[in-house]
Amino acid sequence: MNGKRTAIVLGGSALAALCTAGPALASGGGGSGGVNNSIIIQPNPVAPGGNISVFDGGNCDFPSTGTVTFQTNSVPGIPAITIGPLKSMIGGTGQVPKNIAPGSYQVTLICTSSIGKKQGPFYGTLVVANGASNGVNPSGGAKTGDGASLTTPGGLAEGAAMVATGGGVWFLLRRRVARSSS
Q1: Residue 126 belongs to what domain range?
Q2: Domain holding 57: CATH number?
Q3: Which terminus of the chain is more exposed, N or C, with fewer CB under 10 A?
Q4: Which UniProt keywords are given for this protein, alphabetically ordered (predicted)?
């Protein structure tokens, strides 16, 4: 009877360890620069000729510098924005040209830490509305990451281990209940 009890305790402990370690491992390593948050664009939507602020969303090591670019497929496009340390985030401001066509534009942020470590690209979507109204409906999804957390080495194995451990604990407990009731 002691062997079964030990197996249940060990299985439960392993499951608890995996469940608490999983989110930390999936976050990309912890600390700033290891995460993959959406970048922050304010205001969004913006009217042609309006000023915007773009922030790293906590993705870059602090302090860092970098560049924000906009994929517009039109001439003239939206000029790149140089970013740098602002309080607790990395960011910068710029102006949307008055003659830019309304629509959704992919925003790409790349930063370099103070020790020369490149980080990014990180993505977002800027919506340019016609005039001051919010009359333009965004098209397409925001590019907020490349799904890297799904393809990291061990990511699938960690999930499978959690499921297998949970199944094993369930099986042992179920077996124990069945034997104690007979």
Answers
A1: 40-132
A2: 2.60.40.1930
A3: C
A4: Signal
